[in-house]
Amino acid sequence: MEQLSSPAAPQMVLLDAAARPVEEGVPTGFPEALHPRGEEEEEEKRKGSGPVTFTLGNEILGLEPDNNFQSPDAEVYMHFMRSHCCYDAVPTSCKLVVFDTTLEIKKAFVALVANGVRAAPLWDSKMQSFVGMLTITDFINILHRYYRSPLVQIYEVEEHKIETWREVYLQGSFKPLVYISPSDSLFDAVYSLIKHKIHRLPVIEPISGNVLHILTHKRILKFLHIFGSTIPKPRFLKKTVQELCVGTFRDVAVVPENAPVYAALEIFVDRRVSALPVVNAAGQVVGLYSRFDVIHLAAQKTYNNLDISVREALRQRTVCLEGVLTCYPHETMEDIIDRIAEEQVHRLVLVDENRYPRGIVSLSDILQALVLTPAGIDALNS
């Protein structure tokens, strides 16, 4: 079993940087959840392959789901997270990659793949401080903004530096880096991740200013799954997803397997989702195309052709990623948490007996339900 206590200094790879020390929501109202949002239809997507959405019927949604999280025993995970600090969840050994903002974008994304990480803090040598994070979302936004056709090279990926992209994309509206102190509670970390709709939360030591670790939903749930076995389990874990209504059940975006990769990028950008169930012509779930799949376009140098189908992109993957794992409305919350933790995935696709998609149960949904809802906080919809 992995050691989670007494973390040692992380392994840090600092690329082209100045020298420095090395050390997807729960419906808020049941009646509204049964009706379409009434928003105007999105403009037709490129090549007509836009997101496919559906609205879950009342046979799936549970009645008054929040009541299940208001009993005294439901607060056990909330108290557990408040009694442990972020330092407790930092592994004894980990790899940390830091990029200087003067590094070329292409080199940065290739380095992410080579080091097996999904994000890196950005160090500004002029300001002598961390100013942001470079994530897969940036790569998706770059491809989405600058892709023209398979015959036109994406110059911006080849030549731009990170600082250039930040100036173009942020257009002067630089937001402060969202981070957390190692002494802050894991409850605060969960709230920050969900509230700010981010997937990577740097843990920065306040005195030295060094990044110790990048906390994620997956890391926190793993910590809870390992050490939470020592505390009593709340009764709601024996209830089903259908009864608890934990997950996203309306306007869930999926992508046809024959749609071009560019169409998937449009959905990622427009809907701000982290993964798309891939469906066949019959509408059945046959795969999962995630944001992390996109970064492999950089490693394979195939990002100049985004007209290939999602099916072909998944087939060309050189690394076997998490794939698609499913769950059913009748399964208990405990079983779903166990499956996500053991398989180390970020979400499960909720399907019916015919493998038609009926929703998504993500790590954000689970941590919101386990930790924040018992505290009366709805960070998912705030």
Short description:
By secondary structure, the protein is of the alpha/beta class. The protein is built from 14 helices and twelve strands.
Provide an overview of this structure.
By secondary structure, the chain is of the alpha/beta class. Helix content is 31%, strand content 15%. It is built from 14 helices and twelve strands. A four-stranded mixed beta sheet has the order 1-2-3-4. The chain has a three-stranded mixed beta sheet with strand order 7-8-9. A three-stranded mixed beta sheet has the order 10-11-12. Helix 3 crosses helix 11.
Unreliable stretches (pLDDT < 50, length at least 5) are 1-64
Give me the secondary-structure category.
Answer: alpha/beta
Quaternary assembly? single chain
Basic shape: globular
Helix content: 25-40%
Average pLDDT across residues? Answer: 79
Can you write the helix and strand succession as a string? Answer: EHHEHEEHHHHEEHHEHEEHHEHEEH
* Number of continuous helical runs: 14
Relative strand content: 15-25%
* Straight-line distance between termini: 37 Å
